Each structure stands twice: as C-alpha cells, then as structure tokens.
Amino acid sequence: MTRSTTLGVAALCAAGAFLLSGCGGGGGADDGAHPSGSGSASSSATNPTPSATASATAPALSGAPKFDLPPDVTVRFDGFDGGSATHAALLRDTSYAATAVLEFEAHGYPTEPSNFARYWAGGTGAEYADSIISQEKDGTVITGAYHYYRPVVKSLPDSGGNMSVTYCEDQRKAYSKVAKTGKVLTTQPSLSDFRQWTLLMTKGPHGDWQAFNHTWTKGAKQCEIS
C-alpha cells in the first residue's frame, strides 16, 4: 500500500454493511483499465466546485484543494451545489474526491498525490491508489471530458453520521491516451459509457468528508442521457 490505514476496519464494515458484502470491496473483478477511463471494468472492488468545470486555477473557497488537471481533461458537475449546509459540504467534497481520481489518472503519478490522500480515507483509499498506480504501468493515462450528475445523498444507519452519495457519470467523450506518444484510444459512444457510483463518506480528522469505500457499475441504464 502507498499509505497506512487511518480508520478502524470494524467501523468501516459497520458503516458499509448496507452496501458491501465485506470490507475493502464493493464490486466485481477489475480488468486492469483505468476506472475513470473508457476501458474500465464493469465494477470495481478497489473502488467539483459544484456545477462547474474544474481546472488548475486556484479555487474560490478558502482551504479548498487546487487540482492540476491537464488542458485535455475537463470535468463538469451538475446538481452538486444544493441542499442543507451538511449536504452542500458533503456534495462538494464528493466532487473533490471524484476530481482527485481524475487528476491521479491524468498524470500517471508513481505515488499517491496529496489531493487523493485528502479525500480517500483509510486502507481502502490506499488500496485504490495502489490499483491506479498499477494500472498506469501500461503507459496509458486519461483524456477527454467527464460529466457527473444526479447525486443522491443518504444517511448510513447506525454509523455515527456517515453518509452515502450515489451519482452518475457520462464518459462518452472520455478516453485512454498513450502517455509517451499522445495517441488517443477513441471508442464509439455506447451504454457502457454511463456509470453509476456510490461513495461511502465519513468526516476526516481535518473536517473534510472522505470516501472510505465505493462501488461503481458500468453500463448503468438509469444514468443514460441524450
């Protein structure tokens, strides 16, 4: 792993019991492609200022992360900017967690970057980071446009205030790219480009909401848009 577990395993299991069959997982086998890229597996066991396009520019909110996304990667979040103060902070940090994954996969970092470590907690976050690093050894990174929308927030019962956020992703204009040559590995748009994610979120030691487990499904009919 790239970093040590910071949350108790028992606490993670209790909070995620409604969704996951066990700790450290939440889906089927990984086919080795980037989870946010165009060639991802159908589900992943290792696995925005809201309503705006994230960029490498300094964020408006004090203490917010600064993401270093390359010019050929854009991200859009719709519906991540409403609700109560608690829900607004939760959705904001969920968007940061999603953007941190894109930043990681876009650069092919050999070690876990600080934004990812900030918004992905514990042993599951470490395992997810290791899986991204392993996948990037094939020499590909991500490129293109990523769209996130339809977030749904739920409380996790008997979890001490932990929450879940389920949302959709559109990858029809998102692709893998050969890092050395810049060749984009394009694909034809299809239902498989629509993903549904569920992130289990907990308050971290510094007040950020952090993802401590997640699942995702490829080819999510409920996420299909025109």
TrEMBL record:
Residues 34-63 have a biased composition (Low complexity). Residues 32-63 are annotated as: Disordered. It comes from the Bacteria. It comes from Actinacidiphila yanglinensis. PROSITE patterns: PROKAR_LIPOPROTEIN (PS51257). This is Lipoprotein.
